[in-house]
Amino acid sequence: MNEMAAAGARALELLIELDPDLVEIVVRSLYVSLSAVALAAVIGLPLGALLALARFPGRRVVLVTVNALMGLPPVVAGLVLYLLLSRSGPFGVFGLLFTPTAMIIAQAVLVTPIIAALTRQTVQDLWTEYREQLGSLGATPLRAVPTLLWDGRVALFTALLAGFGRASAEVGAVMIVGGNIDHVTRVMTTTIALETARGDLPLALALGIVLLLMALAVNIAAFLAQERAARSQNA
Q: What are the residue ranges of helices labelled H in 70-200?
């Protein structure tokens, strides 16, 4: 019990003192996760809008695939990417394995289906609601995409927050493709796993507190966005 109390006290000291190693890991984690969400948004937003409004051969297959990938096990994604990025793989020539770039790609693979699926639902609901109005203005479904995305910005912002939550909490895929190399690819989740296995609880606890605060901040941001949207609709 005394050891746990001492570890907790030391973890608070690391946070208050802004321990350099802790700050480095947190900054790298934010860089990787935010970059992954940005990449996933570039792919997922237009893909979701396309699935909502366009009709093309194989649409149902793509739709089912996107929905299925929302539950893709991270270790499976990491294994596939490892095989693709390894020296013997088709993309090994780029030397991306065990780099932050590989971790960004891994997180983007996990986050893109979430953003695409939520975007599809949002755009589809808005098109159903405003179809006649937009049609009277001469807007085709695809030409209405920018308007629908803007109108659904609050819901889409919540989708991006959900994607960030998934990315920042990921450990399996980034461990496989990043290697958890000190000062290179070590992020919060992999460090927590490593330091706990080593028995070095203060750093693990400090990073755990940061992760919990980040999760709380994401939920507060999503709640405030939804509250603001509700007030705007009632005004």
A: 74-85, 100-136, 145-151, 153-168, 172-178, 188-198
Token output for 89? 């793989």
The whole-angstrom separation of Cα 186 and Cα 208 is 14
The pLDDT profile of the chain, 235 residues, written as one tens digit per residue, is: 577 778 778 888 888 888 899 999 999 999 999 999 999 999 999 999 888 888 888 888 988 899 888 888 999 999 999 999 998 889 989 989 999 999 999 999 999 999 999 999 998 888 888 777 877 766 677 777 888 888 888 888 888 988 998 898 888 899 999 988 988 999 999 999 888 888 878 888 999 999 999 889 888 888 887 777 677 666 5
φ, ψ (nearest 5 deg) of residue 95: 60, 40
Nearest of 191, 188, 232, 217 to residue 28 by alpha carbon: 188
For residues 207 and 30, what is the distance between their CA atoms, to the nearest angstrom? 12
Which domains are seen in the chain, by residue range? 19-228 (1.10.3720.10)
